[in-house]
Amino acid sequence: MPNVSKRPIAGSIHTRYLIPLLSLALLSAMALVFSVTQGSSGLPLRDVMNVLIGQGDPLQRTLILDLRLPRTLSAFSTGGLLAVAGALMQILLRNPLADPYILGLSGGAAVGALGAMLLGLGALLVSGSALLGALIATLLVFGLAHGSGSWTPSRLLLTGVVVASGWGAIITLMLALSPPQRLPGMLYWLMGDLSYAQTPWPALVLLISICVVLTPFGRSLNVLARGPLQAAALGVAVKPLEAGIFFLASLLTAIAVTTAGSIGFIGLIVPHMLRLVLGNDQRLILPASALAGGALLTVADTFARTLIAPEQLPVGVLTALLGVPMFLYLLHRTR
């Protein structure tokens, strides 16, 4: 029997991963540059580079370092967190319609944030209240789904949907009772708003860390996506892995909502778009989701603050307007 070398196969596998990730990394870099250079007053790329190396006009330094760059990095990290959280939720629940908000985390965060706005608290306390609300929602859903026995994905999903409906009723009541002067800010937060996102580093560090941590578990996630019985038969510790996925996805969603409010669509559609193009290997889908989700939200936020400048559009509307045609086109091409 002829000796068949395995090197070409391994090389082809690495190439299959490397080319899409490098392409998405290049797309993400272009989105970041586009966001920093565009605004109510455009800036040449040369001026931006001068500012980043410590030179440039003081006014340009303030515009880039204090305003545009933090918002751009916040948009990128938030989009990446939501896309990765959506991919993890779809694995956990084995449901292609699952998204980061399906278990009611955004509802709990919204109640906390809107309550802080009604009390007239500052942006930092609004973010803290949103994070607290998201954590309370996580514990509530997990506790109710567990009950007196063990939880299952279907039980977790049903509990999350019911709890999310309860949060939605509380949000509607708060909006109905709130004074008119506070309604615009509350509605913008519910539709996604990056105007006050000035501290991108926690979300960015978390995004990079999660992608690094999840890489060794790629094979186990691939098996788990096929079903818990097959995963258990192949030696995967199903319950600890499912619990870890739930808490990781909850943490990613909580930080994303705290940073930018409730931005829909990205966590649901971005993983689907990538699976249509790249297949269903989680070792590729998870880092690709981080890059594609970050690039999509960065471009959407740039359009949101420039199309009718100095007024701003809700960024959640722009993510849908940009992503829906892309998804439908890919769906048509792969039918």
Tally the helices: 14
Structural class label: mainly alpha
Distance linking N and C termini: 41 Å
In CATH, the homologous superfamily goes by the name ABC transporter involved in vitamin B12 uptake, BtuC
The averaged pLDDT comes out at: 83
Computed Rg: 21 Å
Major sheet size, sense and barrel closure: none
Contiguous low-pLDDT stretches (5 residues minimum) are: 1-13
Shape: globular
Q: Total number of β-strand segments?
A: 0
Total of domains: 1
Proportion of strand residues = under 5%
CATH architecture: Orthogonal Bundle
- Per CATH, the class reads Mainly Alpha
Assign a percent range to the helix content: over 70%
- From the 3D structure, determine the CATH topology: ABC transporter involved in vitamin B12 uptake, BtuC
GO cellular component, one term: plasma membrane
Pfam families: FecCD
Protein name: Putative siderophore transport system permease protein yfhA
Membrane topology: Multi-pass membrane protein
